[in-house]
Amino acid sequence: MPTGVLFDALDIDAKHEAARSWWHEHQRHMRREHELPRTRVHRTRSGGLHLLFQQHSALRCSAGKLAPGVDTRGVGGYIIWWPATGYPVLTDVPLAAWPDWLLAEFAPKPQPTKQATNGPLQLRGDGWLRGLARTVASAAEGQRNSTLFWAACRARDRVDDGKGDQDFVVDVLLEAARHAGLPPLEAQRTIENGMRGRL
After folding, report:
1. Do the bridges between strand 49-53 and strand 8-12 make them parallel or antiparallel, or are there none, so unpaired?
2. pLDDT, tens digit (0-9, with 9 covering 90-100), for 133-164
């Protein structure tokens, strides 16, 4: 089914841990301003979800922009209409409008300033943390938030295993995000989301 005409879609792939964490966080409404509204939901063959929303001109097709495994489909995209093949409609209600906070993810982002990327990244911590910091610092525009969220999920696992101090890990990831050009408050929010995610 084409998207961007009668509806848009949020595609959550259950195979990705980061996608599951992202979904469960919003299910629990940990941040009230980042709630997902009640709308029509289909189960997909992979065990994931298709959330259908009213068509919006600002919505773009994306892959992993919100989090790895969380895709959007608007004008020019398509989805498989899984109910036609026997998969269930989990929530059969009228289509909701896209929440403003989610549409804001598709607004043009400010270009990194010279200050944000000036000088080499100072790598600190164990090898696993330095690797995560390098990955975040080198993320391309359009992938910076999803990469940072992924790194925070990986770091959370290490902290939970007793292999790192959370405050130190957050500080290192914030420095890497600054180097990539992410605004500090946006980076802080993304790291907190990754650190608080639980399956």
Report:
1. antiparallel
2. 888 998 887 788 888 988 888 888 888 888 88
pTM over 0.85: no
- Are 136 and 76 part of one and the same domain? no
Q: Say if residue 131 is in the same domain as residue 70.
A: no
State the pairing for strand pair 62-67/70-73: antiparallel
Please give the C-alpha separations between residue 96 and each of 36, 71, 111, 135, 159, in angstroms, as whole numbers: 9, 18, 32, 36, 38
What token pair was written down for 25? 């966080």
- The counts of H helices and E strands in the chain are 7, 6
Between residues 111 and 55, the one the model is more confident about: 55
Query: Could you list the residue range(s) of the whole structural domain that residue 16 is in?
Result: 8-106
